Amino acid sequence: MLANVIRRSTLISLGLAKMGCDQLARFVQTAASRGEQTEEEWKKRWQRLSADSEAQGQQVLESVRNGVEDAVRRLGLVTRKDLDDLERRLRNQEGSAAQD
């Protein structure tokens, strides 16, 4: 549940950042049409900004994921992986007991 809240908050933040990028793109087009800089110069800047934004978004998601995993461990909560591992161990033991 906490992971979903954090995930949704992060996605909303990234969506707002995307909206800001869209507004910046409109500004760039307007400035380029006025001849303030060439369209090619603006495109290069835009590509750099987009790449940086994407990298930062990935870093944010990774930080959130690590924070949630750390909180789950500290709280002693059982994860899906823990349950899957336990189920696999039980099946292996049941198989061994049936062979005896």
Protein model, in words:
This protein has one domain (2-99). It is built from three helices and no strands. The protein has helices spanning 2-33, 39-75, 80-99. It is elongated. It starts with a helix and ends with a helix.
In short:
The protein is mainly alpha-helical and 100 residues long. It has helices spanning 2-33, 39-75, 80-99. It has one domain.
Helix/strand layout:
Layout lengths: L1 H32 L5 H37 L4 H20 L1
- Beta-strand share of residues: under 5%
Spatial shape: elongated
- How many domains in all? 1
Give start-end ranges of low-pLDDT stretches: none
The strand count comes to: 0
Q: Helix- and strand-based class?
A: mainly alpha
List keywords for this structure.
100 residues; mainly alpha; single chain; elongated
